[in-house]
Amino acid sequence: MAHPSAPAAQVAALADLLRSPRRIALVTHFNPDGDAVGSTTGLAAVLSAEGHDVQVILPNPAPRNLHWMPGYGEAIDHISAPKACAEMIASADLLFCLDFNRQDRVEGLEAAVRAHPLKVLIDHHRDPDDFARVAFSDVKASSTCQMVHDVVDALGMGKSINADAANSLYTGIMTDSGSFRFPSTTPHTLRVAADLLERGAKPESIHAAIMDDNSLERMRLIGFALSERLEMMPGNEATVIALSKEDHERFHYSPGDTEGLVNYGLGIRGVRLSVLLAERNGLVKLSLRSKGKLPVNEFLAAHFEGGGHANAAGGKSTLPLAVTVAKLKMELPLFLAKHPA
Ligand SMILES: [Mn+2]
What we know:
The protein is built from 13 helices and twelve strands. By secondary structure, the protein is of the alpha/beta class. It has two domains: about 10-210, inorganic pyrophosphatase (n-terminal core), CATH 3.90.1640; about 215-340, Roll (Diaminopimelate Epimerase, Chain A, domain 1), CATH 3.10.310. The strands form two sheets. A six-stranded parallel sheet has the order 3-2-1-4-5-6, with helices on both faces. Strand 4 (about 95-100), helix 4 and strand 5 form a beta-alpha-beta unit. Helix 2 runs parallel beside helix 5, helix 2 (about 35-50) packs antiparallel against helix 6 and helix 6 packs across helix 8. It starts with 7 loop residues before the first helix and ends with a helix. The site of manganese (II) ion has 6 residues, from loops.
């Protein structure tokens, strides 16, 4: 199997670091998603099978539909156990930084991560900061989980991808690729997925655990957002959903409830850009999704302190919701005109 994410020089450097049993901490980004939890627990399972002493450390807990993931129960998080997290990082020989490109993405763990002298990065986000001794960066990879698979394989540790690791890694590839439909899904992505199936990943159970675990409130909130809050922009190419603080309260919002909501707009015929604005914790969070050559990361970087991928990116605004929506509606037509379908 080819390893586009695992260049030989970095693989050799990492192999050197893993030659004898190590105490290893693995961290990922704040608000961990399937790829974040999958890459940390998946790599931890592999390294543990290789005889290393491992600990997964999360900046905050993952949404409930990820708690079933193998190894999630052994992870510690900075919200519940700040001291233990900082001590574990400080005492680790080696710190894996997975699925994030800047050290401020770990929020409360930032100081501990910055202070660690020996970091290994595996990540697929654009423009990673230069903070790791060994860095694997592949912006074309569907997911960090796919990269972890390739790095592990290149290290000759493929046999240590046990069923737990396979289920974790498959989860991240599935969630980050939108169930194998985003353009980042390549033949290689499917070969990696096939390899994980051979090693014990269970696609049906994983999909059900992730997708069919909605609370009734979340389903009602989605219904409300689509019927009462979704606006079609002039030209019928873009949709905007703006959810106020009151909207969240009405449906007893809990974290993760609006996950994936932004994608619904793209399901409408002719729509190639969809926006979700959510007023939470005194801030307006923007999520954008697009189809084709419509770099929403550039739009958000220019106007809403954001970034991410070309077809999926996030940003924020400290302006009131209505003002943010007005600003968005002013800028969107210009952006669409600049990038015609
Ligand atoms: Mn990812």
